[in-house]
From TrEMBL:
Family matches, as Gene3D superfamilies: 6.10.340.10, Histidine kinase-like ATPase, C-terminal domain (3.30.565.10), PAS domain (3.30.450.20)
Domain of life the protein comes from: Bacteria
Entry-linked InterPro entries: Bact_2-comp_sensor_kinase, HAMP_dom, HATPase_C_sf, HATPase_dom, Sig_transdc_His_kin_internal
Enzyme class name: transferase
Membrane topology: Multi-pass membrane protein
Compartments, record wording: Cell membrane
One term of GO molecular function: protein histidine kinase activity
Name the record gives this protein: Sensor histidine kinase
Coiled-coil region(s): none
UniProt keyword terms in alphabetical order: Cell membrane, Kinase, Membrane, Phosphoprotein, Transferase, Transmembrane, Transmembrane helix
Domain HAMP positions: 341-394
Record EC number: 2.7.13.3
Length: 607
């Protein structure tokens, strides 16, 4: 019965409903559906769209991570280089300011007036202030210069003096021991003060020099070279105080103490005056680069850049990549629904007909599908398969009837062997009664052999049962050979209960007695041993018979004994084939034989 357009439409609606469920309620979908329960089209679309989305997303994330790492590294290298150049420029300006101060306190007239006081006060003040003005105008970044003899008597380029009190300036300058000391600026003043003690040639302190430097000396250099880093730059003295910064706000408070400790530690451990590290400040990660001044001891130039600022363009790229993944996946879903229709619809129709078909009552008709692809092959194979199944059902039914009849015949056939070995038991007791033990032993052993042969229809016994069968056979042969035949047994106790295919050892022993001892003079010995290893059980049957050469041994294993006049090898070959078919190529028989030196057959079984 062909699948109607209504049924196809219903199946498409079912697929659409499944897809909508996944969009509206993911948890409910995961509980109610699995890939095995979904239609082929839905499964293909879901799996491949997920793979496409994850593949593109993974590539985007990997490229983004690489780009972020690359941009961060390049930005750090750029910042370190610019910071080092900026620090060198500031050092040069600081050095020039220090040299300018030498022009003042190295002047002999200045030292005389500071030590002894002015002679002609008007002349001396005029000369000193003219010197101070000349030095001040030598640099645009010097706001004013003041020279103190004491707290009440001073010279300057501007009046009145309205900065840090004299005593504080003197205490700060004393820390420099004659060097120029830079002092933390006042809030919002835009002035950074530098002070130094003026000494005579005999190192006698005679005054105090104060230079007021415009903070633009630092900010102009910083802004010209590092204004595009989207972070901040600090100039920090040896006490951790911010002398200046890019945005002019950090000078109002100390820089983050943890960052300064890390900077000191990096400088000490690496021995380098420039470097960088990553630090978390206020819950956000920053790239911190540093450069230590060569001019002023303890001064450091530190830039702090948020990592998010360095990688914000990369984040935008990742967001656009995710959006692109979603668009591409959506287009693939739409396209796959159209492309898969030509593949899935014929398969759906076959599956639909298989549900409704009663195999024994309806013959399949071929689906009208034009093509030479796998679906066309499936269509043709489906019809042939149903016909073959109908034939097989009839054959199985007939075989069941034949099996029932065969079981009945087998049951009837067992009556005669049972009657025979029961009769042998009677003969055994008569031999014992007549005091003829050898006849009784032969009859008992023969009875055991017949009972073993018709029992255990499953073709698998224990090693102990198989060994008992060998004993019965050897008992009959011992009576035939007399004292010339000696059979010894050495079996480990833990392998006796292990299963073994029926009639494995006895054919080998029979081959030894019939052919291995043929023409041998003297004592005939057979040794039967059983060993247990880690991965296998090994049964060994060795004799001291006439042995075989390589050609004879190959003939036995290949089943070509007749041309050598020996028929017993056929049993050995069958035993080997049975073991290999049952357990695999790694098991079976291994034969070692040499002419006039005997033969050893090893049976290898799985443990």
């Amino acid at each position: 019965m062909p699948l109607s357009e209504t049924n196809l439409l219903q199946w498409e609606l079912d697929d659409l409903e499944v897809f909508c469920m996944g969009v509206t309620d993911v948890k409910s979908l995961m509980k109610r559906l699995s890939l095995r329960k979904m239609r082929i089209r839905s499964r293909l679309v879901l799996v491949y769209s997920t793979l496409i989305f994850l593949s593109i997303l993974l590539i985007s994330v990997m490229l983004t991570a690489y780009s972020r790492q690359l941009i961060t590294g390049k930005s750090v290298d750029y910042t370190v280089g610019i910071l080092e150049q900026m620090g060198q420029n500031i050092d040069i300006n600081l050095q020039q300011i220090d040299i300018a101060s030498y022009l003042i306190f190295s002047d002999e007239e200045v030292l005389r007036i500071l030590k002894y006081g002015p002679g002609d006060e008007f002349v001396d003040r005029t000369n000193i202030e003219a010197l101070l003005v000349n030095v001040m105008f030598s640099r645009r970044d010097i706001d004013s210069i003041h020279l103190f003899r004491n707290s009440r008597y001073w010279f300057g380029t501007s009046y009145p003096y309205a900065y840090m009190p004299y005593e504080q300036l003197k205490q700060a300058a004393a820390k420099g021991d004659g060097k120029l000391v830079w002092i933390k600026p006042d809030k919002g003043s835009g002035i950074i003060q530098a002070a130094r003690i003026v000494r005579t040639v005999q190192m006698e302190p005679v005054g105090l020099l104060v230079m007021n430097i415009r903070e633009s000396l630092f900010t102009s250099i910083i802004s010209n070279q590092l204004s595009d880093i989207n972070g901040n730059v600090f100039i920090v003295d040896g006490e951790g105080t911010a002398i200046s910064s890019l945005d002019n706000t950090a000078a109002e408070s100390d820089v983050d103490g943890k960052m300064l400790e890390r900077t000191e530690s990096e400088i000490e451990s690496s021995g380098e005056v420039a470097g960088h590290f990553t630090e978390r400040i206020g819950g956000e990660k920053y790239i911190v680069t540093y450069y230590q001044s060569h001019i002023i001891e303890g001064w450091k130039y530190i830039s702090v850049i948020p990592i998010r600022e360095l990688t914000k363009d990369v984040t935008k790229l990742l967001n656009r990549s995710i959006l692109g993944c979603m668009i591409i996946t959506g287009l693939f879903v739409l396209l796959s629904f159209f492309v898969s229709s030509g593949i899935v619809n014929p398969i759906k129709e076959i599956a639909y007909r298989m549900r409704r078909m009663e195999i024994q009552h309806e013959e399949p008709s071929n689906i009208q599908y034009e093509g030479q692809d796998e679906i066309a092959y499936l269509n043709r194979s489906f019809g042939g398969l149903i016909q073959r199944i109908n034939i097989l059902i009839e054959e199985v039914y007939e075989q069941k009837l034949l099996r029932s009849e065969q079981e009945l015949k087998t049951l009837q056939a067992q009556i005669n062997p049972h009657f025979l070995y029961n009769t042998l038991d009677t003969v055994n007791w008569m031999a014992i009664t007549s005091n003829m033990p050898q006849i009784g032993e032969i009859v008992r052993s023969l009875s055991g052999i017949m009972r073993y042969s018709i029992s255990n229809v499953d073709d698998e016994v224990s090693i102990e049962e198989e060994l008992e069968h060998v004993r019965n056979y050897c008992a009959i042969q011992t009576i035939r050979f007399g004292e010339r035949l000696a059979v010894t047994y050495d079996m480990e106790e833990d392998i006796l209960d292990h299963p073994i295919p029926k009639l494995v050892m006895q054919p080998i022993v029979e081959n030894v007695i019939l052919h291995g001892f043929n023409g041998k003079e003297g004592r005939c010995e057979i040794s039967i041993r059983g060993l247990s290893g880690d991965n296998a059980i090994q049964l060994e049957i060795a004799d001291n018979g006439i042995g075989m050469d390589g050609q004879q041994l190959e003939a036995i294993l290949e089943g070509e004994q007749e041309r050598h006049g020996r028929q017993g090898g056929i049993g050995i070959r069958n035993v080997d084939r049975r073991l290999k078919l049952k357990y695999g190529a790694g098991y079976g028989l291994t034969i070692a034989s040499f002419p006039m030196r005997g033969t050893t057959v090893i049976i290898r079984l799985p443990h």
